[in-house]
Inverse folding.
């Protein structure tokens, strides 16, 4: 049996919602993660390193993400998905929200997140803010 898995990091947590929407509405994967026992996607939060954990995100971004996950659950309900899919959407969203907001690594690890990301950007000839524009609001914060 196959299923979709998503490792949640500070870089991609915002895209988990789009990924789940895509899986439900556009993927055509009717037999992957589609049973009552399988969630929409199997997600795993990357706990380490702490500077890539979702707890490192600025409070304002966490607040926005919290609202986005709540809106996702509402979207699932409004699109009349089966009750087990609604329950899965709620469980995934509530789990991410609860974990992310239960503790903050921001003061201790945000500068490390920025420094690490800038080094990766230089090596790859890329820029995080071109892939995830949301970071433009926070990237220079506390550096």
């Amino acid at each position: 049996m196959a299923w979709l898995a998503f490792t949640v990091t500070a870089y991609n947590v915002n895209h988990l919602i789009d990924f789940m929407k895509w899986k439900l509405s556009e993927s055509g994967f009717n037999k992957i993660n589609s049973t009552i026992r399988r969630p929409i996607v199997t997600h795993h939060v990357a706990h380490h390193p702490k500077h890539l954990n979702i707890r490192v995100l600025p409070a304002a971004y966490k607040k926005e993400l919290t609202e986005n996950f709540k809106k996702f659950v509402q979207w699932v309900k409004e699109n009349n998905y089966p009750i087990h899919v609604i329950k899965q959407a709620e469980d995934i969203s509530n789990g991410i929200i609860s974990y992310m907001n239960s503790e903050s690594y921001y003061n201790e690890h945000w500068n490390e997140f920025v420094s690490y990301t800038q080094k990766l950007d230089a090596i790859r000839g890329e820029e995080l803010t071109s892939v995830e524009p949301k970071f433009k609001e926070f990237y220079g914060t506390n550096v």
About this structure: Residues 23 and 77 are 15 Å apart (CA to CA). The mean pLDDT is 89.
